[in-house]
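Structure (tokenized):
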């Protein structure tokens, strides 16, 4: 009765601030509604001890309780995330804690980074195929008009990147964190580039190799199971898409210096990655980052754009072009969430109930975080500092195909 009274008092406090489409089902069969409207989200407390999660409803607390099966949640993931964030806002102080404290304490060795990548990516290729596009592109899509389907938007994203770095036939391209090989294959098939893609995921490596062979591109594309720090040689172009989040804040200058060592003197590189919008590199509010570090991306750390540009300069690179694609990633994650829910039965078969719940929260939570400007996504085109970027025209028109990409305009 004591806990039920505390819950009732807490609910009354929340209802004074807002009406939510939420129902709480108690362990004794009773329920509490937060609005007169029909609930879109129901949280069931199977035992009295589970009430503690609601009384301090951070994203970390409620997310962990859902994942571990201490509470049950019914409803669309988008509604779940919106309701939980509303509960957190009404009850907790919005503080941005440090991102991935465990990762900073342990440090980023090659072995730890490899383990973290395999934890996230080596679930199974079929698991990812349930919610990604047919090209298996696991990064922010590019919605040029805003109404594209996911497959089209992912191809446009790759083409947008290749246009930005002005890839030409016969040039060499290194794709750091190549995933299942989509960018390298597109660069080879459409531009005739000679590509090397590196990944630390065994599953990605095996499928990417097979896809390259089946596409008849083995003479142009080499996929390696290799750490980017072990790559040798020089490349005309370098891309890194959705990878630098795993590097670690303290190691960003080293990461960009490694890109500089691998880049030809007049080469062009592009880094595409998620950033924190907190100037102090803090995590998302209400414990969202804590949840992701524990269950989704161990060792992951997000830097603010300002620190990224500083680290890039410390690594000997100059930024030529910066583009914010935050809205594009919000839509991408939203579509992934819809695909995930549509394939829920198969996802559970492939990954089990616990991992299903982890990803259900994670995908919808990321979409919400991008929508709220808690996190962002930037593409940064760069080259070696102090060099005249002869490979790039004077204006940005070459990216959008207005005809200003002739050799004369790049002189």
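Design, position by position:
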């Amino acid at each position: 009765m004591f806990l039920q009274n505390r819950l009732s008092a807490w609910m009354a406090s929340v209802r004074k601030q807002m009406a939510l489409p939420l129902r709480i089902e108690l362990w004794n069969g009773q329920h509490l509604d937060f609005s007169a409207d029909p609930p879109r989200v129901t949280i069931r407390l199977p035992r009295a001890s589970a009430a503690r999660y609601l009384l301090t409803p951070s994203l970390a607390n409620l997310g962990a309780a859902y994942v571990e099966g201490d509470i049950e949640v019914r409803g669309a993931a988008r509604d779940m995330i919106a309701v939980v964030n509303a509960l957190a806002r009404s009850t907790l102080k919005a503080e941005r804690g440090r991102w991935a404290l465990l990762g900073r304490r342990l440090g980023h060795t090659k072995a730890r980074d490899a383990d973290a990548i395999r934890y996230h990516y080596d679930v199974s290729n079929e698991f990812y195929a349930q919610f990604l596009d047919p090209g298996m592109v696991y990064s922010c899509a590019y919605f040029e008009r805003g109404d594209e389907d996911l497959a089209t938007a992912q191809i446009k994203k790759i083409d947008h990147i290749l246009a930005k770095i002005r890839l030409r036939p016969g040039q060499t391209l290194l794709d750091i964190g190549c995933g299942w090989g989509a960018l390298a294959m597109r660069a080879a098939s459409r531009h005739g580039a000679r590509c090397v893609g590196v990944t630390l995921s065994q599953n990605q490596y095996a499928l990417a190799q097979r896809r390259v062979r089946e596409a008849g591109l083995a003479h142009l594309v080499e996929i390696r199971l290799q750490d980017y720090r072990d790559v040798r040689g020089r490349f005309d172009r370098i891309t890194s898409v959705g990878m630098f989040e795993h590097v670690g804040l303290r190691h960003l200058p080293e990461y960009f210096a490694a890109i500089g060592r691998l880049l030809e003197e007049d080469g062009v590189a592009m880094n595409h990655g998620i950033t924190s919008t907190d100037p102090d590199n803090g995590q998302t509010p209400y414990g969202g980052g804590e949840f992701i570090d524990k269950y989704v991306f161990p060792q992951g750390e997000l830097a603010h754009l300002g620190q990224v540009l500083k680290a890039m300069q410390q690594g000997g690179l100059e930024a030529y072009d910066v583009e914010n694609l935050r809205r594009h990633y919000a839509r991408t994650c939203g579509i992934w969430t819809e695909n995930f829910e549509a394939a829920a039965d198969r996802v559970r078969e492939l990954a089990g109930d616990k991992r299903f719940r982890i990803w259900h929260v994670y995908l919808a939570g990321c979409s919400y975080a991008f929508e709220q400007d808690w996190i962002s996504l930037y593409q940064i085109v760069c080259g070696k500092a102090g060099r005249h970027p002869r490979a790039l025209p004077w204006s940005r028109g070459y990216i959008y195909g207005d005809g200003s990409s002739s050799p004369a305009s790049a002189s």
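Reviewer-requested clarification: The longest strand covers residues 263-276. The longest helix spans residues 344-371.
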